[in-house]
Design goal:
With 421 residues, the chain is an alpha+beta fold. It has two domains: 4-100, Serine-tRNA synthetase, tRNA binding domain (Helix Hairpins, Orthogonal Bundle); 116-420, BirA Bifunctional Protein, domain 2. It has helices at 4-9, 11-20, 27-64, 69-100, 138-145, 150-156, 167-185, 200-205, 231-236, 293-310, 357-362, 386-396; strands at 120-125, 148-149, 163-164, 190-192, 197-199, 218-219, 224-226, 241-244, 250-259, 278-288, 315-319, 331-339, 344-355, 364-367, 373-375, 377-385, 404-405, 419-420. The strands form five sheets. It has an eight-stranded mixed β-sheet with strand order 1-11-12-13-16-10-9-4. The chain has a three-stranded antiparallel β-sheet with strand order 5-7-6. α3 (27-64) packs antiparallel against α4. The longest helix is centred in the N-terminal third of the chain and has 38 residues, at 27-64. The protein is elongated, with a radius of gyration of 27 Å. It binds one RNA strand of 94 nucleotides through residues 37-38, 41-42, 44-46, 48-49, 51-52, 54-60, 62-63, 68-69, 71-76, 78-79, 242, 244, 367, 370-373.
Length: 421
Amino acid sequence: MLDLKFIRENVETVKEGIRKKNVNVDLDALLGLDAQRRELLKEVEQLKALKNSTSKDVGRAKAKGEDFEAIAAQMKQVSQKIKEIDQQVEQIADNMRGLLLRIPNLPEKSVPVGGEKANKTIKEWGKKKTFDFKPSAHWDLCEKLDIADFKRAVKVSGTGFVVFKGQGALLERALINFMIDTHVRDNGYTEIMPPYLSNEKAMTGTGQLPNLKDDMYCLKEDGYYLIPTGEVPVTNLYSDEILKADELPIYHVAHTACFRREAGSYGKETRGMKRVHQFDKVELVKFTTAETSYDEHEKLLNNAEMILQKLNLPYRVRILASGDMSFAAAKCYDLEVYSPGNDEYLEVSSCSNFEDFQSRRAHIRYKSKEGKTAFVHTLNASGLALPRTFIAILENYQTKDGKIEVPEVLRPYMNGLAFIG
RNA sequence: GGAGAGGUGGCCGAGCGGCCGAAGGCGACGGUUUGCUAAACCGUUGUACGGGCUAAUACUCGUACCGAGGGUUCAAAUCCCUCCCUCUCCGCCA
């Protein structure tokens, strides 16, 4: 959420930012309501001032035993009028909130302007492996090795789900533990195990609601949403809190399942586990001051990259253009791992700086050394999303005889297993 | 699921119709003292919104906020209703 005062004072900047973000919102409607609200406020606050001072007079008159009936009757009318205007103000404020929550964060200066085509590769790491045979796609490997079952998943759930089995389940588990251990031991993160159901307030805090409502699974009876990412519970951990300056920066890492309806994406990437309704993810979340958030953003990216480097998987880093970034992000890098089965790059992490966009929604503040309270900056990155990392390992580490070589760093997590199959 | 207790400022905690933005304490900040630290003492210390004046987030005026929403009243932290949350006990349960 942007600061209303900032919007009022920087209308053109905000409009330009919204345009760059490729979002449609009616800023003028918001500004109109804002002006209207302030007019009414002026009026009603004068009436309230009158009411307050007169009520004190009445109290004094009563104490002295003087007559106050006439004034009291008059004030009753004033109170009635105040109630009416208050209702109008509330109505307008409500509409404003609705609009305000739909205004995206503005892109940071260094972000390239444009849509998806304007995304730029800024780094490539590792060499694409060469094979003396035709590498298979992960769905074929899964089936042959009997390590993941898509068909049976349909029976228990539906399309877009996967069942891991045997050494596949072991690999999944090993990856999770390897990632968490790396971030805790090498990168200084504190592990969190949060709930997978969160309430509407939390979902609004990080910006999933109201815009992405259709992408979320909702438990209407209880008012819960299944989290689409660990970002939601972990970021909202500190909602409505004032942190101390010396507590920052806070680094958290969390493994969670993630649930996404993927509404409207049927027919796209439906084969295999590239896009499923439930998947695991190890998420990194940071809380920082405004001064350090962009340095922390670079470090965060390095932390996520470290996982791919240790797994020795070739990847590239892309800086997302203004129109391709998520609603809440000010700047975002995507990490894409190379996968030879279909000769493609797969997004395994989005590394975003939200500045104070989420913290203003979720009300996460800190008290600086000078005693000022300010909104923290929040950042997050996947470190990493599991299914696509799983795919990349199968497709990059497959051998001619149909096995999967286990990356060195994972073997301790898999009881020393060197080959799957 | 049943019964009870409670939700007040950064924290603890008093207040139970007007003089309450709210005692007292803790913490934090500034100062005095001090070889340094500590202690002691003095002072300061909420947020949001709107207006005025501005270089100004400085100053000033007003309004709102004592879990949330509604009601009673000239006047509500204080009385009434609804909801939410926390705690304790009982039941059920992985």
